[in-house]
Amino acid sequence: MNIFLDTNVFADAFLNRDDGSAKRALKFLEEQTIELFLNDISIINITYIIRKEFSKYEISKIIDELLLKHNIVSVSAKIIEDANHSKFKDFEDGVQYFCAKAINADLIISNNKKDFKMSDINVLTPKEFCLVYVD
Question: How is domain 2-134 classified at the CATH fold level?
Fold first, then answer.
């Protein structure tokens, strides 16, 4: 099973911005033998989002952990082109979606599920994921 994780799942987990579902979902997934993916731009965005709450040293450790536990999808010109010409309202969500398509994802986990209405890949929020698979 291939699971693509949206940037906001990591941001919510690191910054405790939800009810703890993002953190629980990530912990559960990282303990499984499931292929977990995020894109290279997500790492940049995650570090930008959390920079005020974590030291440079802590962020470096977070990046090391992300690289260790997750597969990285490189955003290509084709993915950018596909997102640009797609019907996704938000360009960044289109990029996330086409990265998920590139790795034949079985599932996308995102806290912006409504932004993936165009997706033919199943999308769950971390909370929904936990209700179905963890709890």
Answer: Rossmann fold (3.40.50)
